[in-house]
Amino acid sequence: MANFDPAGYQPAQNLLEDRVILVTGAGSGLGRAAARSFAARGASVILHGRTLSKLERVYDEIVADQSPEPAIAPLNLLKASAPDYFALRDRIQDDYGRLDGLLHNAGILGTLTPLAQYDVNTWAEVMHVNLTVPFVLTQVLLPLLGNAADASVVFTSSGVGRRGRAYWGAYAVSKFGIEGLSQVLADEAEEAGRLRANAINPGRTRTGMRAAAYPAEDPNSLPAPESLMPTYLYLMGPDSRGVTGETFDCQT
Ligand code: NAP
């Protein structure tokens, strides 16, 4: 576990100035908060998500914040195929010429079910969105990340990706996988030195996914996504230069 104190971190107002950052699942929850927070610190954010109307809302919020104008890139990750990924890459190449940051945030919960009854199709969907897509997207975007002087890739993990828990099935296994993917990428990129990869565990957070997993829980007892942004900002910006292959907990 990395040694970082989110409470003591004071990100500069222009921390992400001139950086181009793609956030997956930017329409709600942690992705929305991260996109707004990155933009507020000067980044040009590419808002990816499944639901266009949610992305348009976040776009409007970022413009109202007087942050740099974002871009919108809707894509259903359950249905996307090679041409969709290449089209996204080509668009980023044409519009910006490079990618400084990539936050793999989109994810699905699947069902909370014992392995004995876990539906195989649901298993495959969760593994696809939560693990295979971050691999594919990273692979496709590596040349653009290579064009940046200080590129950062951040993968979203979970507490159940470190210690398995009953009934969390594919979700837990996909998060174990994401930590492995982050470490393999970090190790491969270390020699080049211009790309770092780390995994972030937000911890229990007031979002739609958390409410689906714990319907009886009072959402007001949970931290808001916005309160976890110091760790996201640290990992996306120059203050974490040289930090790679690590895992971070937003809540201690
Ligand atoms: P959320 O509000 O449900 O956000 C998930 C995002 O993923 C949504 O924007 C959703 O887009 C997008 N997404 C899901 N399926 C997609 C698909 N097929 N194609 C494209 N986009 C898709 O949940 P969240 O809590 O913010 O989750 C963000 C990340 O944090 C996830 O990786 C989650 O595993 C992780 N996490 C959350 C917690 C927590 O307590 N909340 C704890 C640990 C880890 P649409 O809204 O358009 O469907």
Number of helices: 7
**Helix-strand string:** EHEHEHEHEHEHHE
Instruction: Give the fraction of residues assigned to helices.
Output: 40-55%
Strand order of the largest sheet: 3-2-1-4-5-6-7
Could you outline the blueprint of secondary structure elements for this entry?
Layout (H helix, E strand, L loop, with lengths): L19 E4 L5 H12 L3 E6 L2 H13 L6 E4 L7 H14 L5 E4 L15 H27 L4 E6 L12 H22 L4 E7 L6 H6 L15 H8 L10 E3 L3
Parallel strand pairs: 1-2, 1-4, 2-3, 4-5, 5-6, 6-7
Helix pairs in contact: 1-7, 3-4, 4-5
The structure holds NADP nicotinamide-adenine-dinucleotide phosphate (NAP).
NADP nicotinamide-adenine-dinucleotide phosphate (NAP) binds next to helix 1 and helix 6.
Describe the structure using short key phrases:
binds NADP nicotinamide-adenine-dinucleotide phosphate, alpha/beta
In short:
With 252 residues, this protein is α/β, with parallel strands linked by helices. It is built from 7 helices and 7 strands.
How would you describe what is shown here?
The protein has a single domain (6-249), classed as Rossmann fold (3-Layer(aba) Sandwich), CATH 3.40.50. The chain is built from seven helices and seven strands; from the N terminus they run βαβαβαβαβαβααβ. It has 252 residues and is α/β, with parallel strands linked by helices. The structure holds NADP nicotinamide-adenine-dinucleotide phosphate. NADP nicotinamide-adenine-dinucleotide phosphate is lined by residues 25, 27-31, 49-51, 54, 76-78, 105-108, 129, 156, 158, 202, 204-205, 207-210.
